[in-house]
Design brief:
The chain is an alpha+beta fold. The chain contains five helices and eight strands.
Length: 315
């Protein structure tokens, strides 16, 4: 049933888009906006194994998001509009993501007391399907006013570099903040009796989302996007498999390894107990951008054009 629904939605979007293209002046105007530079910023939300709802169930649902953990991102990109209905965008993001058991209460996750603050850099190449677009221009008080409006959806592929670090909150103030957790093998990665190998700080990502773009002048426009990014790692929050006890496995450990392999310091969590959960991590962007079209000059008003013409005749 979900697949049939997706096909029906896609059919009507395609039909609507083609009708819009065939019945407006899009086919003669879109070409002027082939190349655009994008710069902006926005919010980041992370959905992994930490925090979430106040009871123990697998995560990955939108209602498992902790609003308090919202962080930031900035981005820079280039858009190539190669068809009235399609464009491709190269986009680079730099940002931060937060996740914490501090935001959940009365369950096993809250007892873990794992808190991270991660940094990320991701680059993606997207294909955009423009299912609605409208272009127009008119003069008001002898000045040109340009209107351009687009609605689009997109997907693509990319790569993300991530680095989870320790974070502290008021009740956990004895913790050291900013410790790089991947090198500590907090789940015994690569250690005798450990769980898995040391994970890589890179992952392939697939973005999905939709956006709108509206002109504010002939060359400039603003856009807003919501993006869901699926990763192929479960270690963006350094939490995935089971608890690893260095003393239990008779492995020499640094003080930081002892602390961050079991941040709560609780005997409740023993070697081999579940520490993470099933499923890969994902994150979200809410983005606001300024866009500038390349190769277009702002047109002068009729009065300005007449003045310059007379000036050239005089001189």
């Amino acid at each position: 049933m979900p697949k049939i629904l997706i096909l029906i939605i896609f059919f009507f979007l395609t039909k609507f888009s083609l009708a819009q293209f065939l019945n407006t002046n899009v086919d003669s105007t879109w070409y002027k906006y082939k190349k655009e530079i994008i710069i902006g910023g926005g919010a980041t939300q992370f959905l992994g194994d930490l925090g979430g709802r106040n009871y123990d169930r697998p995560k990955r649902l939108f209602n498992d998001i902790d609003i308090e953990a919202t962080s930031w991102q900035a981005h820079l990109g280039f858009r190539y509009h190669y068809h009235p209905l399609f464009a491709t965008t190269s986009l680079l993001h730099l940002g931060q993501y937060n996740a914490s058991d501090y935001y959940t209460f009365g369950n096993r996750r809250s007892a873990r007391e794992i808190n991270i603050k991660g940094g990320l850099i991701d680059f993606s190449q997207r294909i955009e399907f423009i299912f609605y677009s409208k272009y127009s221009a008119k003069y008001i008080n002898d000045k040109p006013r340009y209107k351009r409006f687009e609605l689009y959806t997109f997907t693509g592929i990319g790569v993300c570099y991530f680095e989870p670090r320790s974070s502290k909150y008021e009740q956990f103030s004895m913790w050291k903040e900013g410790v790089r957790l991947r090198q500590l093998s907090t789940e015994g990665q690569g250690q005798p009796g450990g769980f898995g190998e040391t994970y890589k700080p890179f992952t392939i990502v697939i973005p999905f989302g939709f956006g709108l773009q509206k002109s504010i002048s002939r060359r400039r426009s603003i856009k807003f996007e919501l993006t869901y990014i699926k990763s192929f790692t479960d270690y963006m929050d350094d939490t995935s498999t089971k608890y690893y006890s260095y003393p239990f496995n008779d492995v020499t450990a640094s003080p930081e390894q002892l602390v961050f392999s079991n941040p709560a310091g609780s005997a409740q969590f023993k070697n081999g107990d579940e520490r993470g959960g099933k499923g890969k991590d994902c994150y979200f962007y809410a983005s606001f951008s300024f866009v500038k079209a390349l190769g277009i000059k702002d047109k002068k008003s009729k009065t300005e054009r007449s003045f310059l013409k007379n000036l050239r005749l005089i001189f």
